[in-house]
C-alpha cells in the first residue's frame, strides 16, 4: 500500500478497556452495531475519501481487528501498524510508516464523532502555520492544588482542552519524535507534538468547536456517544 497521500491520518487505538470495566478494548466496543474504530475511520473517509489512513494497534489486537473487519465487511482501505510500549512509541511507529512530506494528523481511535468541519479547520490551519490543534473551552470549575494540600481557583476562561485530530507538517512532527527529544516528550506528554522549546513552530489553534466527538471513556465519554 502506498502511503504518499496529501492527507495522512494516524489513528492511534491503544486502549486495553480497563477504564470501561470490561475485557474488550474500547476501540472494539460496538456503537450503532459496529466497532467504534470503524466509525472513526469512516469519519475521515467522509472528509477525504483519498486520505491515507494508518491504524496503530497493540500487536496482540491486530488479528482481532482483522477478524472484525471481515465480520462487518469493512472495506475502507487502511494500513495497520503495531503500536509500542507507550503512546509516544505508538505514534512514532505509525510515523515510521509514512513516506509523505505533507500534512499528518494524529487522532484518537475512540473519538468517532469528529466533524468534517473540525478536520478541515485543523488541516487548513496546519497548512498555514505548520501545526494545529482543536480546542474547546473548559466548562468545569478548576482548582490548582498545592503540595501542602491547599488549593486556589484557576481562571478557566484562560484554559482550553486540547482534542484531536492534531495536525502537523511532516517535518515538524518528525522533529518532535526524534530520539533526542524523548525525555522532553515524556516530561510534557506532548500529545500535541512540537510544543517544546527548539521545535518550531508553535501549534495554531483553529476555531473553537463544540465538544461532541466524545472519547469512549467513562464517566462522560460512554454516555456522550449515541448508542
Give a short synopsis of this structure.
The chain has 227 residues and is an alpha/beta fold. 28% of the residues lie in helices and 19% in strands.
List keywords for this structure.
227 residues, alpha/beta, six-stranded mixed beta sheet, 28% helix, disordered C terminus
Q: Would you kindly provide a written description of the structure presented here, covering whatever features stand out?
A:
The protein is of the alpha/beta class and 227 residues long. The protein is built from 7 helices and 12 strands. The chain has helices at residues 36-47, 62-71, 87-96, 116-129, 170-176, 182-188, 221-224; strands at 7-12, 30-31, 34-35, 52-57, 79-82, 103-108, 131-132, 135-137, 143-145, 151-153, 160-162, 166-169. The strands form 4 sheets. Strands 5-4-1-6-12-7 form a 6-stranded mixed beta sheet, with helices on both faces. Strands 2-3 form a two-stranded antiparallel sheet.
Helix content: 25-40%
Low-confidence spans: pLDDT under 50, at least 5 residues?
Answer: 190-202, 211-227
- Helix/strand structural class: alpha/beta
Biggest sheet, spatial arrangement of strands? 5-4-1-6-12-7
- Give the count of helical stretches: 7
By DSSP, the count of extended strands is 12
User: How confident is the prediction overall: mean pLDDT?
Assistant: 81
Ends distance: 34 Å
- Please give the largest β-sheet: 6 strands, mixed
- SSE order: EEEHEHEHEHEEEEEEHHH
What is the strand content? 15-25%
Using only C-alpha atoms, the radius of gyration works out to 18 Å
The best one-word shape is: globular
Amino acid at each position: 500500500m502506498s502511503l504518499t497521500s496529501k492527507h495522512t491520518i494516524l489513528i492511534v487505538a491503544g486502549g486495553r478497556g480497563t477504564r470501561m470495566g470490561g475485557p474488550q478494548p474500547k476501540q472494539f466496543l460496538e456503537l450503532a452495531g459496529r466497532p467504534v474504530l470503524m466509525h472513526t475511520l469512516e469519519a475521515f473517509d467522509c472528509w477525504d475519501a483519498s486520505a491515507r489512513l494508518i491504524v496503530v494497534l497493540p500487536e496482540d489486537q491486530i488479528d482481532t481487528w482483522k477478524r472484525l473487519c471481515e465480520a462487518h465487511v469493512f472495506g475502507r482501505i487502511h494500513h495497520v501498524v503495531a503500536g509500542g510500549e507507550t503512546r509516544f512509541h505508538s505514534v512514532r511507529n505509525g510515523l515510521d510508516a509514512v513516506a509523505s512530506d505533507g500534512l499528518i494528523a494524529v487522532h484518537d481511535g475512540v473519538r468517532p464523532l469528529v466533524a468534517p468541519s473540525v478536520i478541515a479547520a485543523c488541516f487548513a490551519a496546519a497548512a498555514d502555520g505548520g501545526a494545529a490543534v482543536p480546542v474547546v473551552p473548559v466548562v468545569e470549575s478548576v482548582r490548582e492544588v498545592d503540595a501542602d494540600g491547599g488549593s486556589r481557583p484557576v481562571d478557566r476562561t484562560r484554559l482550553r482542552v486540547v482534542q484531536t485530530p492534531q495536525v502537523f507538517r511532516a517535518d515538524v512532527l518528525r522533529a518532535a519524535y526524534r530520539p533526542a527529544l524523548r525525555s522532553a516528550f515524556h516530561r510534557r506528554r506532548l500529545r500535541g507534538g512540537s510544543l517544546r522549546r527548539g521545535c518550531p513552530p508553535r501549534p495554531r489553534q483553529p476555531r473553537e468547536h463544540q465538544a461532541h466527538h466524545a472519547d469512549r471513556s467513562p464517566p462522560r465519554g460512554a454516555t456522550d456517544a449515541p448508542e
